[in-house]
Amino acid sequence: MEELDDFTLLGYIDDVEGISFYAKKNDMGPSILNGIDSIHDTFVALSPLIKTEDHVKRMKLEVGSHLDELKAACQLNDERNVLAKMRIMRDKVNVLKALLEKK
Description:
This protein is mainly alpha-helical and 103 residues long. The chain has helices at 2-25, 30-46, 53-75, 79-102.
């Protein structure tokens, strides 16, 4: 189970780093870059909390599609959409972290 946790979470962390790359490439504002960094940091903080296959499934369900949407918006240099998707993503990741910290 540990390998699956690490692989999935590392994949998401890598995706967020890719999103950051596109945001920088497209000269998006500091609030967007800071928001993306915040999402990245929260994913890193999730690492010790993801302990079961159910945690992995929940993480995929909660953030998987939103991460893809955020990446697409960054690639298209759509700052308004990036802000909206980033806020949704940040909220989802923070809620997931809070739930897992309670367990």
